[in-house]
C-alpha cells in the first residue's frame, strides 16, 4: 500500500529514511551503510545473479526445477498460468 507506481521514481532517500526511522533503526548507521561500497557491491551481485537467472524486471516469476528450463512470467501471471507451469515442471 505504501509502494508507488513502478513507472515513477518514488523510492527517494527521504522515503528510505522515513521507513528506517519507522522501523526503529539508527539513522546515522543506516545512512552510512546505505552509502557504503559494501552495499553497492551487494546490490551489483544481486542484480547480476537475477539477470543470469533470467529476471528482467519486477515482478518476475520463474517456475521450474533447478538446472532445468523454467517458465518465466514477466509481469503478473494469472493463477491458471502458474498452475499450468507447475504442472509442466
Please characterize this protein's 3D structure.
By secondary structure, the chain is mainly alpha-helical. It contains four helices and two strands; from the N terminus they run αααββα. It has helices spanning 13-22, 27-34, 37-52, 79-88; strands at 60-63, 71-74. The protein has a two-stranded antiparallel ribbon with strand order 1-2. A hairpin with a 7-residue loop joins strand 1 (60-63) and strand 2 (71-74). The longest helix is centred in the middle third of the chain and has 16 residues, at 37-52. The chain starts with 12 loop residues before the first helix and ends with a helix. The mean pLDDT is 85.
Gist?
The protein is built from four helices and two strands, in the order H-H-H-E-E-H. It has 89 residues and is mainly α.
| Overall pLDDT level | 85
Our count of helices gives: 4
- Tell me, what's the shape? elongated
Helix content: 40-55%
**Strand-pairing-aware structural class:** mainly alpha
Number of DSSP-assigned strands:
2
Report the β-strand fraction as a percent range.
Answer: 5-15%
- H/E topology pattern: HHHEEH
Radius of gyration: 18 Å
Distance between the termini: 33 Å
Widest β-sheet, arrangement of strands: 1-2
Which key features would you list for this structure?
single chain, 89 residues, mainly alpha, two-stranded antiparallel ribbon, 4 helices, 49% helix, elongated
Chart the SSEs and their pairings.
Layout: H1 13-22, H2 27-34, H3 37-52, E1 60-63, E2 71-74, H4 79-88
Antiparallel strand pairs: 1-2
Amino acid at each position: 500500500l505504501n509502494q508507488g507506481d513502478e513507472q515513477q521514481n518514488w523510492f527517494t532517500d527521504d522515503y528510505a529514511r522515513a521507513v528506517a526511522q519507522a522501523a526503529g533503526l539508527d539513522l546515522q548507521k543506516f545512512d552510512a551503510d546505505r552509502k557504503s561500497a559494501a552495499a553497492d557491491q551487494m546490490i551489483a551481485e544481486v542484480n547480476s545473479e537475477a539477470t543470469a537467472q533470467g529476471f528482467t524486471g519486477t515482478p518476475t516469476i520463474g517456475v521450474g526445477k533447478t538446472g532445468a528450463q523454467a517458465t518465466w512470467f514477466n509481469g503478473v501471471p494469472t493463477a491458471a498460468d502458474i498452475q499450468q507451469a507447475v504442472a509442466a515442471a
